[in-house]
């Protein structure tokens, strides 16, 4: 069946990173001749620096600098030899310092990414299972990819969802030896924590459970001797060291002030095996002498009383920042004790504007971007370090407040919208009053938008003049709306109903600017995923029918295909018209608990790409659309002669010989018993076609077709075996835009090879369209190769997705890579 070109995730990321680079947000260059940590120079301008991960400022400590200089003078710039053979003379000293700091055996690694790559494949055995927290660091996700070719079960839970974790543990424990859960101690974007204490309690409940933490952002600024957040939580439960079923990857860079990472493991047997042979740990170059010496100097500070002084200095500034933020009308993800703060902006365009206004205010902070955060969760990520003076922090908070106000105006955003997108973050005083004020101050627009829940409230002539082709001419759309509005329960007990919404935007003169329609329905998240992903999900749906399904607000509907909107492309307000529609869609999404919005079937990827991306939509490639288009009425002979020589030969060998074996009848209304037969054949195809994985349409839809004058059934029966019906194709003919649409197909697979059922039905649907003098025969998606051989043009199509959370998109990517 359908072979679909699926979107390359890297292409999607490239689009947004390229956009951010053009706006001078990413891939910048510092231009300082020396660093203090307090300021940073970019594009000849000096900024207050609130983007560092050196929270304690140790990278500027003179003792660490002196140690690095002395090591270079004594040992050179590097020690070019694998640590497997001979370690640098300073390595033993560093290992001793770190083992005393962590009170456990350690393995020093070049960096955390290589550390994960070296450790994880050796830790996890073929009989084990893996569970990832959705927001665990990319470097862990990357290392997990090495496990998939070994057939290891890899699963993922929503961020910090312990209920989902326990459900998965109970599901996996009878099938696997060990169950490994991977999480961060402190998460790098929002600065929130893993529920470490709760996870440690689960170790007693589930003996198979093992924990692996990436705590690089929890290191140094907290914990005894700066041993990090995870160990601090272990000690609160009475552990003086890591439990044997808990593994830790910490860092010697970032707050520690040096380079490299350190794997901590209390289990001596595991430690010995990994240190003896650990992939990149064995074959990668070892840390250079300067880095090792710097880490030793830092470790000595960590193991002294001085670390408490440094931690308390930072803590005082973090508390000071929190107190200032609470006086402002700013959204904050959380007022917590970490040095990482996140100011929600929402849509990418709002984040870009916020960054720009901060930049103009002389403040540098990082922008949280997709894929590190969901597109609609773009925000300003800033950090507090010991380098920052209190007056700097005051300048930061005042700058954030002013930039936020300017951003709301320049990006046409609102506090209410941001609050909805982030699930009500913490706000300063006066938030409720500001919301009321925003409603009163909303700027008047030259545009007017009307939203209806039925097509009958729209003007039939305007709909026709807007050139909506195919199945959704006015009568066809009215029929579809009435049919799909009926609530039904499928064979798995899932209740379905499709709601339709129509949006009409006009300008001050009353002229139409934008007309489009959306539908709301339950859809499978893997609808456009590779067949291998859908096979995996369908296995899980045998026990949980709604697994990886979402309420989706989709432009058009899953029943229709083509351009589902009319837009005056050259109208100066067209982009604002789209924004008006999206704003209303957000309101409807909130009312209906919608998880994803999809804009479908764009033939020109660049037409509205900019406005869609700024509004938080990801572009993806869709299956190719297959159409036959004729400039004038065309006969069967003219159509056939237009085929290439090769395609004519295909017809004569693969279709024509079978035509004599069957008869075709064109039916406009059949018996209910015949509809029952049709429906069984439709289900045969629907279950097989995982390339476009959808819920099956209800039988009632086909009964409704049977009494609608626009529909007809092309029925194929054998001439032998008592004229057995072996296939049917369900076709709609629009008398207003003259498009013939073979919309659905059904056949008996046991007869397909003998009678070439699919190819015959495809051929007859084209002939029927020619008989109707239809200028467009819309063959829809899938089986593009077969349709091309019968003269169809293949059109590249695109869609744009906007998701409340990256979890399901990442689950698709995780499963795709596993498959």
TrEMBL record:
Keywords: Aminotransferase, Transferase. Its cofactor is pyridoxal 5'-phosphate. It comes from the Bacteria. InterPro entries: Acyl_CoA_acyltransferase, Aminotransferase_I/II_large, AON_synthase_class-II, PyrdxlP-dep_Trfase, PyrdxlP-dep_Trfase_major, PyrdxlP-dep_Trfase_small. GO terms for molecular function: pyridoxal phosphate binding; transaminase activity. Residues 55-398 form the Aminotransferase class I/classII large domain. This is Class-I/II aminotransferase. It comes from Zunongwangia atlantica 22II14-10F7. The lineage of its organism: Bacteria, Pseudomonadati, Bacteroidota, Flavobacteriia, Flavobacteriales.
């Amino acid at each position: 069946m359908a072979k679909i070109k699926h979107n390359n995730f890297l292409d999607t990321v490239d689009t947004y990173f390229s956009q951010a680079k053009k706006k001078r947000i990413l891939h910048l260059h510092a231009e300082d001749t020396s660093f203090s940590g307090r300021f940073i120079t970019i594009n000849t301008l000096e900024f207050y620096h609130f983007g560092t991960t050196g929270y304690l400022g140790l990278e500027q400590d003179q003792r660490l600098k002196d140690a690095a200089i002395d090591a270079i003078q004594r040992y050179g710039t590097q020690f070019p030899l694998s640590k497997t053979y001979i370690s640098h003379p300073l390595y033993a000293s560093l290992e001793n310092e770190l083992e005393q700091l962590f009170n456990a055996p350690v393995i020093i690694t070049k960096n955390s990414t290589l550390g994960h790559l070296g450790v994880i494949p050796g830790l996890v055995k073929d009989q084990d299972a893996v569970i990832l927290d959705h927001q665990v660091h990319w470097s862990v996700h990357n290392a997990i990819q090495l496990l998939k070719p070994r057939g290891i079960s890899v699963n993922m839970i929503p961020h910090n969802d312990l209920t989902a974790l326990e459900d998965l543990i109970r599901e996996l424990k009878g099938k696997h030896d060990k169950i490994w859960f991977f999480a961060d101690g402190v998460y790098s974007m929002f600065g929130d924590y893993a529920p470490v204490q709760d996870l440690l309690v689960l170790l007693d409940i589930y003996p198979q459970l093992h924990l692996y933490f990436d705590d690089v952002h929890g290191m140094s600024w907290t914990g005894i001797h700066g041993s990090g957040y995870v160990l601090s939580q272990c000690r609160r439960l009475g552990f003086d060291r890591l439990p044997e079923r808990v593994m830790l990857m910490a860092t010697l860079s970032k707050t520690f002030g040096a380079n490299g990472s350190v794997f901590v493991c209390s289990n001596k047997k595991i430690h010995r095996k990994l240190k003896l042979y650990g992939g990149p740990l064995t074959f990668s170059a070892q840390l250079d002498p300067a880095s090792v010496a710097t880490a030793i100097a830092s470790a000595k500070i960590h193991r002294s009383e001085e670390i408490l002084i440094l931690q308390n200095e930072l803590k005082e500034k973090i508390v000071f920042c929190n107190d200032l933020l609470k006086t402002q009308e700013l959204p904050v993800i959380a007022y917590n004790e970490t040095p990482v703060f996140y100011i929600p902006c929402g849509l990418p365009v709002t984040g870009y504007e916020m960054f720009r206004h901060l930049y103009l205010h002389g403040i540098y902070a990082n922008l949280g971007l997709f894929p590190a955060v969901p597109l609609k969760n773009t925000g300003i990520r800033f950090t507090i370090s010991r380098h920052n003076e209190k007056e700097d922090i005051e300048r930061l908070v005042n700058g954030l407040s002013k930039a936020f106000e300017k951003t709301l105006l320049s990006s046409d955003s609102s506090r209410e919208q941001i609050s909805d997108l982030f699930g009500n973050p913490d706000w300063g005083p006066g938030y409720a009053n500001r919301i009321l004020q925003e409603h009163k101050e909303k700027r008047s627009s030259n545009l007017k938008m009307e939203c209806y829940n039925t097509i009958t409230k729209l003007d039939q002539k305007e709909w026709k003049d807007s050139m909506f082709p195919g199945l959704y001419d006015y009568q066809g759309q009215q029929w579809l709306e009435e049919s799909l509005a009926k609530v039904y329960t499928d064979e798995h007990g899932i209740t379905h109903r499709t709601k339709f919404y129509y949006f009409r935007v006009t300008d001050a003169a009353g002229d139409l600017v934008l007309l489009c329609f959306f539908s709301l329905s339950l859809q499978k998240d893997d609808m456009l995923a590779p067949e291998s992903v859908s096979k995996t999900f369908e296995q899980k749906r045998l026990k949980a029918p709604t697994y990886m399904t979402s309420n989706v607000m989709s432009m058009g509907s899953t029943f229709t295909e083509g351009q589902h909107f009319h837009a005056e492309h050259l109208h100066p307000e067209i982009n604002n018209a789209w924004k008006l529609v999206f704003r209303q869609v957000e309101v409807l999404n909130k009312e209906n608990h919608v998880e994803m919005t999809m804009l479908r079937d764009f033939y020109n990827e660049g037409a509205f790409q900019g406005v869609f991306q700024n509004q938080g939509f990801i572009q993806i490639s869709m299956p190719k659309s297959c159409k036959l288009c004729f400039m004038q009425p065309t006969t069967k002979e003219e159509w056939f002669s237009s085929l290439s020589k090769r395609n004519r030969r295909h017809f004569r060998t693969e279709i024509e010989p079978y035509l004599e074996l069957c008869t075709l009848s064109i039916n406009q209304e059949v018996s209910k018993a015949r509809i029952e037969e049709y429906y069984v054949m439709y289900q045969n195809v629907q279950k097989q076609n995982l390339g476009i994985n959808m819920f099956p349409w209800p039988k009632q839809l086909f009964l409704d077709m049977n009494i609608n004058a626009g529909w007809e059934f092309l029925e194929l029966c054998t001439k032998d075996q008592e004229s057995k019906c072996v296939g049917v194709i369900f076709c709609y003919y629009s008398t207003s835009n003259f498009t013939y649409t073979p919309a659905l197909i059904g056949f008996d697979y046991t007869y397909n090879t003998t009678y070439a059922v699919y190819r015959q039905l495809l051929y007859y649907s084209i002939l029927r369209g020619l008989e109707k003098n239809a200028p467009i025969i819309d063959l829809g998606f899938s089986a593009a190769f077969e349709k091309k051989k019968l003269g169809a043009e293949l059109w590249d199509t695109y869609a744009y997705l906007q998701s409340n959370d990256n979890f399901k998109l990442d689950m698709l990517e995780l499963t795709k890579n596993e498959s």
